[in-house]
Protein backbone atom coordinates (compact mmCIF):
# COMPACT_ATOMS: atom_id res chain seq x y z
CA UNK A 1 0.00 0.00 0.00
CA UNK A 2 1.21 3.45 -0.87
CA UNK A 3 1.72 5.63 2.18
CA UNK A 4 0.58 9.22 2.47
CA UNK A 5 1.79 12.22 4.40
CA UNK A 6 -0.70 14.04 6.62
CA UNK A 7 -0.35 17.81 6.71
CA UNK A 8 -2.43 20.62 8.18
CA UNK A 9 -5.06 21.72 5.65
CA UNK A 10 -4.11 25.04 4.10
CA UNK A 11 -5.19 27.47 1.43
CA UNK A 12 -2.97 25.71 -1.08
CA UNK A 13 -5.17 22.59 -0.79
CA UNK A 14 -8.54 24.27 -1.38
CA UNK A 15 -8.82 23.96 -5.16
CA UNK A 16 -7.81 20.29 -5.24
CA UNK A 17 -10.03 19.49 -2.24
CA UNK A 18 -13.06 20.95 -4.00
CA UNK A 19 -12.20 18.88 -7.08
CA UNK A 20 -11.98 15.70 -4.97
CA UNK A 21 -15.45 16.30 -3.56
CA UNK A 22 -16.86 17.05 -7.02
CA UNK A 23 -15.39 13.76 -8.21
CA UNK A 24 -17.13 11.90 -5.36
CA UNK A 25 -20.43 13.57 -6.29
CA UNK A 26 -20.06 12.47 -9.91
CA UNK A 27 -19.61 8.90 -8.71
CA UNK A 28 -22.56 9.15 -6.31
CA UNK A 29 -24.87 10.63 -8.93
CA UNK A 30 -24.48 7.48 -11.02
CA UNK A 31 -26.53 5.76 -8.30
CA UNK A 32 -28.43 8.80 -6.98
CA UNK A 33 -29.13 10.83 -10.14
CA UNK A 34 -31.61 13.07 -8.32
CA UNK A 35 -28.77 14.80 -6.46
CA UNK A 36 -28.37 18.34 -7.84
CA UNK A 37 -25.90 18.31 -10.73
CA UNK A 38 -24.43 21.66 -9.67
CA UNK A 39 -22.20 19.93 -7.11
CA UNK A 40 -20.30 18.25 -9.94
CA UNK A 41 -18.74 21.68 -10.53
CA UNK A 42 -16.01 22.11 -7.92
CA UNK A 43 -16.64 25.86 -7.87
CA UNK A 44 -19.99 25.20 -6.16
CA UNK A 45 -18.40 23.87 -2.97
CA UNK A 46 -15.12 25.84 -3.14
CA UNK A 47 -16.30 29.00 -1.29
CA UNK A 48 -17.99 26.91 1.40
CA UNK A 49 -14.81 24.88 1.93
CA UNK A 50 -12.75 28.05 2.06
CA UNK A 51 -15.00 29.58 4.72
CA UNK A 52 -14.92 26.43 6.87
CA UNK A 53 -11.14 25.98 6.56
CA UNK A 54 -10.55 29.54 7.76
CA UNK A 55 -12.19 28.87 11.12
CA UNK A 56 -11.83 25.11 11.66
CA UNK A 57 -8.83 22.77 11.71
CA UNK A 58 -8.36 20.21 8.97
CA UNK A 59 -5.86 17.79 7.48
CA UNK A 60 -4.66 17.04 3.96
CA UNK A 61 -3.36 13.65 2.80
CA UNK A 62 -0.54 13.94 0.26
CA UNK A 63 0.88 11.09 -1.84
CA UNK A 64 3.51 11.67 -4.53
CA UNK A 65 2.91 15.43 -4.27
CA UNK A 66 -0.79 14.96 -4.98
CA UNK A 67 -3.79 15.56 -2.70
CA UNK A 68 -5.49 12.18 -2.17
CA UNK A 69 -7.72 13.15 0.74
CA UNK A 70 -8.79 15.92 3.08
CA UNK A 71 -10.90 16.29 6.22
CA UNK A 72 -12.09 19.44 7.99
CA UNK A 73 -13.99 19.42 11.27
CA UNK A 74 -16.59 22.05 12.10
CA UNK A 75 -16.42 22.76 15.84
CA UNK A 76 -19.79 22.85 17.62
CA UNK A 77 -19.64 24.36 21.13
CA UNK A 78 -22.83 22.60 22.27
CA UNK A 79 -24.44 19.96 20.07
CA UNK A 80 -27.07 18.15 22.14
CA UNK A 81 -25.43 19.69 25.17
CA UNK A 82 -21.88 18.50 24.38
CA UNK A 83 -18.83 20.10 22.81
CA UNK A 84 -18.66 18.34 19.47
CA UNK A 85 -17.17 18.35 16.01
CA UNK A 86 -18.90 17.70 12.70
CA UNK A 87 -17.34 16.75 9.37
CA UNK A 88 -20.11 17.43 6.82
CA UNK A 89 -20.39 15.21 3.74
CA UNK A 90 -18.72 17.97 1.68
CA UNK A 91 -15.81 18.51 4.11
CA UNK A 92 -13.95 15.27 3.38
CA UNK A 93 -13.07 13.19 0.34
CA UNK A 94 -10.65 10.39 -0.46
CA UNK A 95 -9.52 8.86 -3.74
CA UNK A 96 -7.51 5.90 -4.98
CA UNK A 97 -7.31 2.21 -4.22
CA UNK A 98 -6.14 2.94 -0.67
CA UNK A 99 -8.81 5.55 0.07
CA UNK A 100 -10.02 3.69 3.18
CA UNK A 101 -6.50 3.71 4.58
CA UNK A 102 -6.27 7.41 3.74
CA UNK A 103 -9.55 8.07 5.57
CA UNK A 104 -8.47 6.10 8.65
CA UNK A 105 -5.11 7.87 8.76
CA UNK A 106 -6.69 11.30 8.46
CA UNK A 107 -9.26 10.54 11.15
CA UNK A 108 -6.62 9.15 13.52
CA UNK A 109 -4.58 12.33 13.19
CA UNK A 110 -7.36 14.90 13.44
CA UNK A 111 -9.42 13.06 16.08
CA UNK A 112 -6.44 13.31 18.40
CA UNK A 113 -6.64 17.10 18.14
CA UNK A 114 -10.41 17.14 18.55
CA UNK A 115 -10.22 15.21 21.81
CA UNK A 116 -7.41 17.44 23.09
CA UNK A 117 -9.76 20.34 22.39
CA UNK A 118 -12.51 18.73 24.46
CA UNK A 119 -14.62 17.47 21.55
CA UNK A 120 -15.77 13.98 22.54
CA UNK A 121 -18.72 13.72 20.16
CA UNK A 122 -17.71 13.22 16.53
CA UNK A 123 -20.15 13.45 13.60
CA UNK A 124 -19.28 12.56 10.02
CA UNK A 125 -21.48 12.94 6.95
CA UNK A 126 -21.07 10.42 4.14
CA UNK A 127 -22.75 9.91 0.78
CA UNK A 128 -25.20 7.03 0.94
CA UNK A 129 -23.53 4.73 -1.60
CA UNK A 130 -19.97 5.21 -0.32
CA UNK A 131 -19.95 1.77 1.30
CA UNK A 132 -16.17 1.73 1.79
CA UNK A 133 -16.17 4.81 4.02
CA UNK A 134 -19.40 3.80 5.76
CA UNK A 135 -17.76 0.48 6.68
CA UNK A 136 -14.63 2.31 7.83
CA UNK A 137 -16.74 4.51 10.10
CA UNK A 138 -18.54 1.46 11.48
CA UNK A 139 -15.22 -0.14 12.42
CA UNK A 140 -14.19 3.12 14.08
CA UNK A 141 -17.20 2.87 16.38
CA UNK A 142 -19.63 5.17 14.58
CA UNK A 143 -23.37 4.59 14.42
CA UNK A 144 -26.20 6.15 12.45
CA UNK A 145 -27.42 9.56 13.64
CA UNK A 146 -29.49 10.99 10.77
CA UNK A 147 -30.59 10.24 7.22
CA UNK A 148 -31.17 12.56 4.28
CA UNK A 149 -33.34 11.04 1.57
CA UNK A 150 -34.73 12.15 -1.78
CA UNK A 151 -37.31 11.20 -4.40
CA UNK A 152 -38.82 12.46 -7.63
CA UNK A 153 -42.26 14.05 -7.84
CA UNK A 154 -43.92 11.08 -9.52
CA UNK A 155 -46.65 8.76 -8.29
CA UNK A 156 -46.85 7.86 -4.59
CA UNK A 157 -47.36 4.23 -3.62
CA UNK A 158 -50.57 3.62 -1.65
CA UNK A 159 -52.70 2.54 0.08
CA UNK A 160 -54.46 5.88 0.57
CA UNK A 161 -56.83 6.70 3.41
CA UNK A 162 -60.30 8.09 2.77
CA UNK A 163 -59.70 11.45 4.44
CA UNK A 164 -60.05 15.12 3.57
CA UNK A 165 -56.75 16.80 2.67
CA UNK A 166 -56.57 20.59 2.74
CA UNK A 167 -53.93 23.26 3.01
CA UNK A 168 -53.75 24.90 6.43
CA UNK A 169 -54.30 28.63 6.72
CA UNK A 170 -53.83 31.13 9.52
CA UNK A 171 -57.27 30.16 10.83
CA UNK A 172 -55.80 26.71 11.58
CA UNK A 173 -53.06 28.09 13.82
CA UNK A 174 -54.19 26.31 16.99
CA UNK A 175 -54.63 22.99 15.15
CA UNK A 176 -51.18 23.18 13.55
CA UNK A 177 -49.61 24.15 16.88
CA UNK A 178 -51.26 21.18 18.59
CA UNK A 179 -50.01 18.75 15.94
CA UNK A 180 -46.53 20.30 16.10
CA UNK A 181 -46.40 19.80 19.86
CA UNK A 182 -47.65 16.26 19.35
CA UNK A 183 -44.70 15.60 17.05
CA UNK A 184 -42.27 17.05 19.60
CA UNK A 185 -43.70 14.88 22.37
CA UNK A 186 -43.60 11.78 20.16
CA UNK A 187 -39.91 12.04 19.22
CA UNK A 188 -39.01 12.67 22.87
CA UNK A 189 -40.28 9.20 23.80
CA UNK A 190 -38.78 5.74 23.27
CA UNK A 191 -37.01 4.76 21.13
CA UNK A 192 -36.09 8.15 19.59
CA UNK A 193 -35.44 10.09 22.83
CA UNK A 194 -34.80 13.36 20.99
CA UNK A 195 -35.00 16.43 23.19
CA UNK A 196 -35.96 19.72 21.55
CA UNK A 197 -34.89 22.70 23.62
CA UNK A 198 -36.95 25.12 21.54
CA UNK A 199 -40.59 24.10 21.15
CA UNK A 200 -42.64 25.35 18.22
CA UNK A 201 -43.93 28.77 19.22
CA UNK A 202 -47.12 30.51 18.17
CA UNK A 203 -45.25 33.34 16.45
CA UNK A 204 -43.01 31.08 14.32
CA UNK A 205 -45.97 28.88 13.40
CA UNK A 206 -47.96 31.95 12.41
CA UNK A 207 -45.16 33.11 10.11
CA UNK A 208 -44.99 29.72 8.40
CA UNK A 209 -48.72 29.64 7.77
CA UNK A 210 -48.51 33.10 6.21
CA UNK A 211 -45.51 32.19 4.04
CA UNK A 212 -46.69 31.39 0.48
CA UNK A 213 -43.51 29.39 -0.23
CA UNK A 214 -44.36 26.89 2.54
CA UNK A 215 -47.38 24.58 2.37
CA UNK A 216 -48.71 22.92 5.53
CA UNK A 217 -51.20 20.17 4.68
CA UNK A 218 -53.80 18.81 7.08
CA UNK A 219 -55.60 15.47 7.00
CA UNK A 220 -59.10 15.63 8.48
CA UNK A 221 -60.87 12.43 9.58
CA UNK A 222 -64.38 12.48 11.05
CA UNK A 223 -64.09 16.23 11.52
CA UNK A 224 -60.77 15.98 13.40
CA UNK A 225 -57.40 17.18 12.09
CA UNK A 226 -55.34 14.04 12.71
CA UNK A 227 -52.19 14.57 10.66
CA UNK A 228 -50.04 17.23 9.01
CA UNK A 229 -47.15 17.48 6.58
CA UNK A 230 -45.17 20.64 5.86
CA UNK A 231 -43.20 21.23 2.66
CA UNK A 232 -41.25 24.18 1.28
CA UNK A 233 -37.83 25.28 -0.03
CA UNK A 234 -34.80 23.04 0.57
CA UNK A 235 -34.04 22.74 4.27
CA UNK A 236 -30.92 24.65 5.31
CA UNK A 237 -30.37 22.33 8.27
CA UNK A 238 -30.19 19.23 6.08
CA UNK A 239 -27.24 17.85 4.12
CA UNK A 240 -25.82 20.46 1.77
CA UNK A 241 -25.86 18.05 -1.19
CA UNK A 242 -29.68 18.25 -1.32
CA UNK A 243 -29.66 22.06 -1.37
CA UNK A 244 -30.95 23.49 -4.63
CA UNK A 245 -33.61 25.86 -5.96
CA UNK A 246 -35.34 22.83 -7.48
CA UNK A 247 -35.41 20.82 -4.22
CA UNK A 248 -38.50 20.93 -2.01
CA UNK A 249 -37.99 19.78 1.58
CA UNK A 250 -40.42 18.19 3.99
CA UNK A 251 -39.74 19.82 7.34
CA UNK A 252 -42.55 18.48 9.54
CA UNK A 253 -44.81 15.43 9.58
CA UNK A 254 -46.96 13.90 12.30
CA UNK A 255 -49.98 11.61 12.57
CA UNK A 256 -51.96 11.00 15.74
CA UNK A 257 -51.52 7.52 17.18
CA UNK A 258 -55.09 6.26 16.75
CA UNK A 259 -55.02 6.69 12.95
CA UNK A 260 -51.46 5.66 12.12
CA UNK A 261 -50.57 3.11 9.42
CA UNK A 262 -53.85 3.61 7.55
CA UNK A 263 -52.54 5.45 4.48
CA UNK A 264 -52.96 9.02 5.72
CA UNK A 265 -49.26 9.78 5.31
CA UNK A 266 -49.28 8.58 1.70
CA UNK A 267 -52.27 10.81 0.99
CA UNK A 268 -50.54 13.85 2.49
CA UNK A 269 -47.35 13.05 0.59
CA UNK A 270 -49.23 12.83 -2.71
CA UNK A 271 -50.80 16.26 -2.22
CA UNK A 272 -47.44 17.70 -1.12
CA UNK A 273 -45.64 16.40 -4.21
CA UNK A 274 -48.42 17.69 -6.46
CA UNK A 275 -47.97 21.12 -4.87
CA UNK A 276 -44.17 20.93 -5.27
CA UNK A 277 -44.52 20.07 -8.95
CA UNK A 278 -46.88 23.00 -9.54
CA UNK A 279 -44.41 25.28 -7.72
CA UNK A 280 -41.61 24.36 -10.14
CA UNK A 281 -39.66 21.87 -8.04
CA UNK A 282 -38.22 18.69 -9.59
CA UNK A 283 -37.35 16.66 -6.48
CA UNK A 284 -38.31 16.31 -2.82
CA UNK A 285 -36.03 15.73 0.17
CA UNK A 286 -36.55 14.80 3.80
CA UNK A 287 -34.19 14.29 6.74
CA UNK A 288 -35.17 12.03 9.62
CA UNK A 289 -33.98 10.27 12.76
CA UNK A 290 -33.29 6.54 12.19
CA UNK A 291 -34.37 5.74 15.76
CA UNK A 292 -37.92 6.75 14.87
CA UNK A 293 -39.07 3.30 13.78
CA UNK A 294 -42.49 4.28 12.39
CA UNK A 295 -41.14 7.40 10.74
CA UNK A 296 -38.21 5.72 9.07
CA UNK A 297 -40.34 2.88 7.70
CA UNK A 298 -42.56 5.46 5.99
CA UNK A 299 -39.73 7.57 4.60
CA UNK A 300 -37.74 4.57 3.36
CA UNK A 301 -40.83 3.27 1.57
CA UNK A 302 -41.14 6.48 -0.43
CA UNK A 303 -37.60 7.95 -0.53
CA UNK A 304 -34.04 6.86 -1.33
CA UNK A 305 -31.26 7.76 1.14
CA UNK A 306 -28.63 10.06 -0.36
CA UNK A 307 -26.58 10.96 2.71
CA UNK A 308 -25.99 9.61 6.22
CA UNK A 309 -24.70 11.34 9.34
CA UNK A 310 -22.81 9.01 11.65
CA UNK A 311 -21.87 9.64 15.26
CA UNK A 312 -19.24 8.43 17.73
CA UNK A 313 -19.16 9.25 21.41
CA UNK A 314 -15.66 9.10 22.91
CA UNK A 315 -15.33 7.82 26.48
CA UNK A 316 -15.17 10.95 28.64
CA UNK A 317 -12.97 9.18 31.19
CA UNK A 318 -9.88 9.56 28.99
CA UNK A 319 -9.94 13.34 29.48
UniProtKB/TrEMBL annotation:
<dbReference type="GO" id="GO:0016747">
    <property type="term" value="F:acyltransferase activity, transferring groups other than amino-acyl groups"/>
</dbReference>
<feature type="domain" description="N-acetyltransferase">
    <location>
        <begin position="163"/>
        <end position="319"/>
    </location>
</feature>
<dbReference type="Pfam" id="PF00583">
    <property type="entry name" value="Acetyltransf_1"/>
</dbReference>
<protein>
    <recommendedName>
        <fullName>N-acetyltransferase domain-containing protein</fullName>
    </recommendedName>
</protein>
<dbReference type="InterPro" id="IPR000182">
    <property type="entry name" value="GNAT_dom"/>
</dbReference>
<dbReference type="InterPro" id="IPR016181">
    <property type="entry name" value="Acyl_CoA_acyltransferase"/>
</dbReference>
Amino acid sequence: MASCEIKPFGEEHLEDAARLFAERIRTERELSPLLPVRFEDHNTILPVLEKLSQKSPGVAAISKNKLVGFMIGWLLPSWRGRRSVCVPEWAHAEIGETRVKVFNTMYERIAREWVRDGCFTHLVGVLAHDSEIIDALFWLGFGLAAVDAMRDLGDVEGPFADVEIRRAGIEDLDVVLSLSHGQEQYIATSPTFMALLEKTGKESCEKLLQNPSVASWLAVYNGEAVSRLQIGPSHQGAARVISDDKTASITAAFTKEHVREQGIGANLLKHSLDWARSAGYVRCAVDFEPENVLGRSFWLKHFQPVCYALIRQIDLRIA
